[in-house]
Amino acid sequence: MPPPRTILYTGKGGVGKTSVAAATARSCARAGLRTVVLSTDPAHSLSDSLEAELGPEPTPAGDSLWGQEVRAQVEMEANWAAVQEWMSKLLASRGIEQIRAEELTVPPGMDELFSLLQIKRHTESGRFDVLIVDCAPTGETLRLLGFPDIAQWWIEKVFPWERRLVNAARPLARTLDVPLPGPEVFEEVQRLTRNLIAMNEILRDRENCSIRLVMSPDRMVIKEAQRTFTYLNLYGYLTDAVIVNRIFPDDVEGGYFGPWRERQREHLLSVREGFAPVPVLEARYFEEEVVGARMLDRLADELFGGTRPEDVLHTELTREMSTEDGVAVLRLSVPFAEKADINLKKVGDELIVTVGGEKRTIILPSALSDRRPSGAAFEDGTLKVSFEDARTAARAQPERV
Fold first, then answer.
1. In this structure, is residue 396 part of a structural domain?
2. Are residues 226 and 195 in the same domain?
């Protein structure tokens, strides 16, 4: 059974991201596709948008349509209970009161991460044709999308040593009266890590999964969307469309909102030019709130027109490997980045690329494991790194592009 078409919507808070996700889901369902739309944003508003009472499990919200507001607490109990119990005991043994100890056992962002694991669950169930995800605002989403890479590192580098280290520490732990993790803790962490890696594979399946950025035609919002687009490319995720929502219609010209409309027109031009060739879908600022079936369908019709919203609207790869005159070349798309913001270094078979405040570790093909970066260039939003045989490459590795 083929995996469901998965679309993740993210964007700055207040741009209508939930409405766009709900409208897309209703459009897919109207086409007869079994569709579930789920919210992983802790500030759920999907129920209000669909005018349906939703719960932590998929709930019918129309013909061929289900809605779900993931409860982070429920997901934590299913994925983190053993670790939480051990950490609570550990903190309590150090004199921290029980309630505060329980709060400290969940690292920031883990609750949203557990919510995203619903993507894996629905993909494996075979129950749905289309999966629409209303993600948390861009900052949280970016942080979470980096977790699978971190999980991969842990399972390859750390887990092979964990049990030996714990066994060696047991005599000292008994002396200090410190509780050590039992086998159930390790099993839970490894299960979670493998789930994250599996989810990573789903999110990077460009034939079935893509991310869409939602923004309003305002300068600050567009700037954040550009940064997000850069980081999504850095992480290797496909952005197949950007959506500009709440555009003032032409008939406001000459009135109070006329100057706003003129500025929006300028910003729209910069969006179309800056994100090209990624499709830009546009929707007006409606005369009433976009809530309920009628208005959501109006929004979907305006956004997609004759386009099927479940289609992958853009397929351009963000990175590729090639060989030029015997030199291996890695090309990585990092649009909107500035040359001075990019740093890179190679450690073993890992190429570490830093853009601004975001860092991505790219696992290189085995053929490049004995090669060193011999040059790097950044032009027109593309980072190009050349690799030569270690015996002929210069000893100095590029630390800055």
1. no
2. yes
- Distance of alpha carbon 401 from alpha carbon 390, whole angstroms: 20
pLDDT of residue 336: 86
Torsion of CA 198, 204, 208, 211, to 10 degrees: 120
Within a domain: residue 251?
A: yes
List strands edge to edge, sheet with 130-134. Answer: 59-62, 65-69, 35-39, 130-134, 5-11, 209-215, 239-247, 280-284
Question: pTM for this structure?
Answer: 0.77
> Residue 92: pLDDT above 90?
no
Find where tokens 């939703």 sit. 54
- Two structure tokens written together for 210: 């893509």
**Residue 257's domain spans which residues?**
1-315
Could you read off the pLDDT of 160-169 as tens digits, one per residue?
A: 545 554 454 4
* Residue 373 domain-assigned (yes or no): yes
Same domain, 332 and 367: yes
Interatomic CA distance for residues 200 and 198, integer angstroms:
5
Helical (H) or strand (E) element with 384:
strand 382-389
pLDDT band of residue 229 (cuts 50, 70, 90) is: confident
